[in-house]
Amino acid sequence: MAGLATFGIGEMPGFSSIEMAAQAGLLAVQDAGLAINQVDAVFCCLPDDLFGGLTLAEYLGLHPRFTDSNRTGGSSFASHIITAAIMIEAGYIDNALIAYGSNQRSSGGRLATPAKSSVWEQPYKPIFPLSSYALAAARHMHQFGTTREQMASVAVAAREWANTNPEAFAKGPLSIEDCLASRMISSPISKADCCLVTDGAAAILLTSTERAKGGPRPAVPVLGAAAATWHNSISSMPDLTTTAAQESGARAMSAAGVTPGDFDTVQLYDAFTINTILFLEDLGFCAKGEGGPFVESGAIAPGGSLPVNTNGGGLSCCHPGMYGLFAIIEAARQIRGEAANHQEGAQLCLAHTNGGTLSSQATIILGSEATI
């Protein structure tokens, strides 16, 4: 990874999604020390345009060798990285631009997506996708004794990180009591358990490690990556307390030759507080069923043993419809030493992304040049 950028996090009225994605893309290319005409592959998933990759290429005046708009929800961008990395290694492309933009908040707060509950779930009138995550949370509580207080600990930790990140949208005090008193939306998930609704754009420029080493910013190699899908609709999820992150994480770590204990920071797709608990367990940072006590102990908060979502995550930094690329950029910023809440000496970081209703899971492992 040679370049990265974010743009318009929070509220950016007057900008369309494609305009935001293009701005982030231009900044990422500049960050890599390249000219826009050196980009020969475009990967772009937009919330309101099924042909986002084609639109972005046209908007930027590019004639790429390869364009992809693969949509797996918030995990799309990790999948784009996997595809681009393999193509770069094979010599098919040289410089891939991976971008996303959304004006979700300033355009009215509604997520523009064709996704919805399956025909088998619709008679029960679920809130999509929130009720699916509520179902997983309820099962985790029933099976392992997880509490709403423990889920609230995730939101409180995210806010503590956000309070010292100038880019974060939500700041200010947030207590366990505040979370428990927040409006219930789909039991047991309340407003405080839900991610933000913001505008925002992000982009990265992926190239070979050798080319990246010659750039103006430190290269951030992709050491390992993997994706896995076990279901689409939540009603087809084999086990509501275990996600395909168990598979994607294990394969990504095997490819990188690392274990959960090796990471300096962990960036997780926290669309809802239960996500963080599930992914900590499935990725091996604690045993299955122990995610609740783990987060309640303060382990993932500032000063804890495992810095998680150091930018504030989707719960307090930003969530413009899809958060995955922002988690990946925060991991890269930690390694570059550019993160607002930089963890001293960070050399190895994991970013895990999620799409659909705990459906598509993708794990990216980033390191410093010293880890190669």
Automatic annotation (TrEMBL):
Pfam family, one: Thiolase_C_1
Gene3D superfamilies the UniProt entry points to: 3.40.47.10
InterPro entries (UniProt xref): Thiolase, Thiolase-like, Thiolase_C_2
GO molecular function annotations of the record: acetyl-CoA C-acyltransferase activity
Domain spans labelled Thiolase C-terminal: 226-367
NCBIfam families documented for this protein: PRK06158.1 (NF004811)
PANTHER family associated with the record: ACETYL-COA C-ACETYLTRANSFERASE, NON-SPECIFIC LIPID-TRANSFER PROTEIN-LIKE 2
Protein name per Swiss-Prot or TrEMBL: Thiolase
Species of the source: Aurantiacibacter marinus
Lineage: Bacteria, Pseudomonadati, Pseudomonadota, Alphaproteobacteria, Sphingomonadales
